[in-house]
Amino acid sequence: MPNEKKKKQKQSSVSELYKIDGDKIAPKNKSCPKCGAGVFLAQHENRESCGKCGYTVFKSSVKK
Description:
By secondary structure, the protein is mainly β. The chain has a domain of 40 residues. The protein is 0% helix and 39% strand. It is built from no helices and 6 strands. Strands 3-4-5-6 form a 4-stranded antiparallel beta sheet, with no helix packed on it. A two-stranded antiparallel ribbon has the order 1-2. It is extended. The protein starts with 17 loop residues before the first strand and ends in a 6-residue tail after the last strand.
């Protein structure tokens, strides 16, 4: 299958993971409790998950 084309993935930078307000720097996402600081949980529609260790927290969906 040499004719298949590969899609290019967007490179993320470190500055996209943090929010900067003047002199304060705060992470946008939660860090993984198992892996420690510097490893963030990915935000999905119904869960937050760690790509390194697989730790997953499901978001509660309360419908009225």
